[in-house]
Amino acid sequence: MRYQLIGVNHKSAPLEVRERLAIPESRLPDFCRDLAAHPGIEEGMIISTCNRVEVITHTVNGSADLRGFLHEHFKLKPEDLNPHLYELREKDAVRHVFRVASSLDSMVVGEAQILGQVKEAYATARAVGAVRGQLDQLLSRAFAVAKRVRTETAVGSSSVSIASVAVELAKKIFGTLQGKNVFIVGAGKMSELAARHLMAHGCASIFVANRTYERAIGLAQRFNGQAIKFEDLYNSCDRADIVITSTGAPHAIFRREHGEQFLARRKNRPMFFIDIAVPRDVSADLAKLDGIFVYDIDDLQQAVAGHIADRRKEAEHAEAIIASEVEKFEARAHTLDVVPTIVSLQDHLETIRQAEIDRVRGRMGTLTPEQEMAVEALTRGIINKVMHTPITTLKSAAREAEATTVIDVVRRLFNLQVKAKEIPSEPARKEEVETRH
Amino acid sequence: MSLLWLRFALACYFIGLTYAFFALTRTSELFSRIALHAASVGMVFHFVSLVELFLSGRVVWASVHNGESLLAFLSMTFFMIIYAIYKTTSPGVVVFPIVFFLTFVAAVDEQPVLLTAFVQHKGWLVAHIILIFTGYAALMLSFGASLLYLIQERRLKSKKPSSLISFLPALEVIDQIGYRSLLLGFPFMTLGLITGSVVAMTTYGRIDFSDPKILLSLLMWAVYMIMVFTRWNSGWRGRRAAALATFAFVAAIVAWAANYFSTIHRFAAS
């Protein structure tokens, strides 16, 4: 249980800070490798979404310098970054991971996308070998907890996703979405989801522009839409009433001058920009133009904040589940700590028993099968009786903080060799990434 | 009697007026229904009042108060048409106060009368008045819509969660209401001015362009035309459209006020 976590989320840091910490999908594997190689860290993974950046690690001694890692990898002054960071250890870190996966820490509590994002982050870190036994256990448990929260509470039901809020807003601007055109810039999962919602509400056609033209074609085909070369973006964007943009561009790609061009060509018919990119794709001065409406990810989430109140009660129930799951996980983790000791104690006594039987066998002459069995039973009985107390003590100690002391004492009393711990990671393997949004 | 019915109508419109103030701060489905029913009842009284006036034999259409009463009634008709098409009572925010004001003034007893005793073609005069007033009502509604457009635009730009539950219809719908009223009002206004000129021609034999009433009316018409043109040509909306609509509306009021100092289109003291 030497979990350690550092991060920022929508509550702790404004979008300006989050967008500077965001890690592009393509660079995530490198970041995970660097993290695992960072001094004091055994395993590590990074969740980077538009709402949060979480660095989850299992450390050598429970006090790795995670802040140092962030300072090294992001061009942010410590004084700008530190006030927004939260750092959690052991039980608190476990609880946080459970809450994140269960979507209790999301701005829109209960939204389902976060679980998929956590699963993907986990798969990425695993693929580069940054995640092994300890984090495997934590994450596989987190996925199970998330599932439990979803099935046992109503937190996830009537989830108001970003996409459906975008539709509501579009209706407030255009009245009906019949015959409106949608332009997707940057073929991402979120934008695809939003586009699907808009189409379901009657939008007429879809244009897709993407840096990689092939991806644009792929997405356009799925919607029966039209792929646009990225170079033609500004020439064709005015055909769209609704622009969903989510590119990984480091700078704004829609600026005031573009907006002015669009409006002139559209005879001032309004345009609605849904900017779900972090860092943002639409510059702030564009939103000041008459007839241009820009909602970035924070605005959209604020727009749905009202719905959170309805789910507060369900969230309380979910928090109770999380609390009990954290207890269970902690207990199990400690038990796992004592398991190797118990096994080697058993091995040790079994070796003694076998050696003693072999030693006296010659003196006893030929034994009937019944006698053989009696000797077996007798010696086993003695050993089990002797082992009983140490094992129960170990197991009960596992649930408390003194586990390490007891393990130590038992090992010294019985002169047990310290073996490298081999913790099976089977359960985690079962939880492969199922959903790809 | 006509005046009594008008005062009943006024009482009903008062409910609409309170709704107008109420609706600015919060949304209430119930209150908007009450206001709508009150307005319908008010319109019935209003209609009865106008019919009675007409049947009384001595129709003095050119009386200021009768004119205001007619304008209020036409505005309410527009409001109801919009409700029938768009299912929204929000233009009432602007329409109700104006209608209430017009009806209130009309329901006061004193009646200065236009000097029309020597007008030869009464039919043309009636046509002129009804056409011009329909144009006024349309212009007023268009002005109201442009104000609502500004409010709704600001709400959407403020990005508060309340922008999702605002009582106002969608931005494009408001825009359509404004634009359609504008388009509808234009031919009425134009025809109204033409019939007015005909009346003037037949009465005086010529049109005196130096008369403030005629000058201001032409100015108003010109602003109106510019408005329709820019709206059609460059799709102006939002702040610029609101500024233009305000200008046209003020021009209309000034043109109306010119009755008090025009030599050919003026009121006699009652």
Radius of gyration of chain A, taken over Cα atoms and rounded to an integer in Å: 29 Å
- In spatial order, strands of the major sheet of chain A run 7-6-5-8-9-10
The portion of residues forming beta strands of chain A comes to: 5-15%
Share of residues in strands of chain B: under 5%
Structural class of chain A: alpha/beta
Major sheet of chain B: order of its strands? 1-2
Q: Could you say what the CATH architecture of the largest domain in chain A is?
A: 2-Layer Sandwich
For this structure, the quaternary state is: heterodimer
Biggest sheet character of chain B = 2 strands, antiparallel
Q: Which structural class do the helices and strands of chain B define?
A: mainly alpha
Notes on the protein architecture:
- The complex is a heterodimer of chains A (437) and B (270).
- By secondary structure, chain A is of the alpha/beta class.
- In chain A, 54% of the residues lie in helices and 13% in strands.
- Chain A has helices at 15-21, 28-37, 66-73, 78-81, 90-101, 113-127, 133-152, 162-174, 189-200, 213-222, 233-236, 256-265, 297-308, 312-364, 369-398, 403-413, 426-430; strands at residues 3-9, 41-48, 52-59, 86-89, 181-185, 205-210, 226-229, 242-245, 271-275, 292-296.
- Chain A has a 6-stranded parallel sheet with strand order 7-6-5-8-9-10.
- In chain A, strand 2 and strand 3 form a beta hairpin.
- The radius of gyration of chain A is 29 Å and the shape is elongated.
- With 270 residues, chain B is mainly α.
- Chain B folds into 2 domains: 1-111; 112-270, no CATH class.
- In chain B, strands 1-2 form a two-stranded antiparallel sheet.
- The longest helix of chain B has 37 residues, at 122-158.
- Chain B starts with a helix and ends with a strand.
- The mean pLDDT of chain B is 80.
- The interface between A and B is medium-sized, with 25 and 24 residues.
